[in-house]
Amino acid sequence: MSRSQTVLRxxxxxxxxxxxxxxxxxxxxxxWPGAVVLVLLTWYAAxxxxxxxxxxxxxxxxxxxxxxxxxxxxxxxxxxLLAAALLxxxxxxxxxxxxxxxxxxxxxxPTLRRWVRRGCLVAVLTVPAWAxxxxxxxxGGLGDVGLTYAAIAAVAVLTLSVWLVSREASRRA
Amino acid sequence: MTTGVRLSARWxxxxxxxxxxxxxxxxxxxxxxxxxxxxxVLGTPLVVVAIWSTVRRPTASPLxxxxxxxxxxxxxxxxxxxxxxxxxxxxxxxxxxxxxxxxTRYTPVTRSVSAGTIDAGAVDAGAASTDAGTGTEGTTGTGxxxxxxxxxxxxxxxxxxxxxxxxxLGPATVAVTSAWGAFRWEPEQVVGAPIPTIPLPDTFxxxxxxxxxxxxxxxxxxxxxxxxxxxxxxxxxxxxDRLRRVHWPVSVRxxxxxxxxxxxxxxxxxxxxxxxxxxIGASEGVGGASSSLDNSVRAAGAIAEHYLRTGDRVALxxxxxxxxxxxxxxxxxxxxxxxLDVLARVRVGDSTVGDEKRVRGQLRHPVSAxxxxxxxxxxxxxxxxxxxxxxxxxxxxxxxxxxxxxxLATGDVAAARLAExxxxxxxxxxxxxxxxxxxxxxxxxxxxxxxxxxxxxxxWAGPGTLDLVLRDLGxxxxxxxxxxx
Lengths: 173, 485
Description:
The complex is a heterodimer of chains A (about 170) and B (about 475). With about 170 residues, chain A is mainly α. Chain A has one domain. Chain A is built from six helices and no strands. The mean pLDDT of chain A is about 85. Chain B has helices at about 15-35, 35-55, 250-255, 290-310, 335-345, 355-360, 380-395, 415-420, 430-450, 465-480; strands at about 5, 10-15, 65-70, 75, 80-85, 95-100, 105, 110-115, 130, 135-140, 155-160, 165, 170-175, 185, 195-200, 220-235, 260-265, 270-275, 315-320, 325-330, 370-375, 395-400, 455-460. A six-stranded mixed sheet of chain B has the order 20-19-18-21-22-23, with helices on both faces. In chain B, strands 1-3-5-11-7 form a five-stranded antiparallel sheet, with no helix packed on it. Helix content of chain B is about 30%, strand content about 25%. Chain B is an alpha+beta fold. Classes of the chains: A mainly alpha (about 170), B alpha+beta (about 475). At the A-B interface, α3, α4, α5 and α6 of A face α1, α2, β6, β8 and β13 of B.
């Protein structure tokens, strides 16, 4: 395995363990069995980043957070959430890049720069969503049923548009 | 210009894309339905990546060709395995890996290239990326002019063939991926035709001519008198002698016309018999240890090269090899290539009943009168040595070249080497050692019998290997003898 691939997989492990540590720090009641499973999945993901189990790892992190951490307000808690989201992005991107190229091949410099640049762009795009979510959580209101339905409809429209775009792309191919 | 086989495949979504899509949308959905803004935040980057990947999905298959740069190699020579990718829209990374095969060396084994297609905000578009130290090289597509065709990405791996024979490069694994590694274009493993590697002949030269040249034109001194360069005698003038051959000093002194007579320069036929029934010893390719078959093949190549350059005719017969033609005697450079091609296809026999039958058939080969037969054998099989004796009794000049590696020709062979000789033998190293010593004793007795029968046996030693025995054979060929026909 090339040095750059080793570093990339190390980054994946660090990011995954970082999400786990953040979750455990933020959680009032820690779910230790879940943490152990996530650690094991992290090592497996570093070994086989092309595996479908990486999906289980990323999904497991989200599930672990949702189960173990209640909705909190306050800047520290919200920054923790943002950090966890960005670390999750790092886990996904590192696994994707590691799986894209042969393990023994060094990762080309332009490829690395392109992925870092795009990762930063996605991180920047995440901040508004985080800010809106944080504001929503601070409102603390019971919410409006109409808005909830609107949000559900928005997610459905988003899913439908992604599906339509992919369908259109496959037709062109 | 693209070379090699065109590869075909389809773009497929990778687990990375499924992950971004599934986890992202489910997280956002859970966040909305269950009023969990944290799930919404956690899922947002993945949703963005999924949408980005879907929008930048490749629309057409890239044109990919793979193949070796040279159709034929010499032992130790290197070529390039070249992958040429004409990236379509959406292609970003190209990677290739060659799996190791015996007697090949790759530098590096695997390569990856950034194809860098047209992309909004892509700073690296249009630039070349070369990093010899890390094994990456390639050129990116054009970024400034969307109408121009993308520059093909060339990815090459240096492949060295370290042993004669047919060497397979690969199989190779090739993969082309899109943005965020979301879609992958991966053909089946690329298996190219094996590349013939012709043996690198040892250095060989012979100062002594072959015993009985009997052809038309050549450089070997014949026993017959005729046009040539070597003085035979000065004799009285006979009707038909050319005037320019008159030797005036002798003619003046004797008062009678005398002429110089020369030996004719003729070519001879050299028949190379290569014993491929056994391959004894480890074969590590160029620069490493040589097995008996390595020695035989390289020596045959060297002898053929030497005699063909001196204008003689060379024939080749590989004993015990399957599906190899008998190369008839001919002269010239092209014939050398033909001989080397056949030598590159030599494979050791598997000692089956079929092999023995084939050898018995091959041993009935015709031999022209006046030919020099050079038998290259490790002399493990007594059949070949018996054949040499039979040829010698027919009055044919035979030289046997011993190609057994010198370190195996003694009784004190290390246990590890003996284990290579008989890998599946029960009884361990002690039994193998004893068996090998007995075989060597039998072999030395067979060699002594062959020498008594007039078949010289010499170990292969490169230049001058045949000089001494050819001189003896030449002397013997001029003496009267009894021949059984």
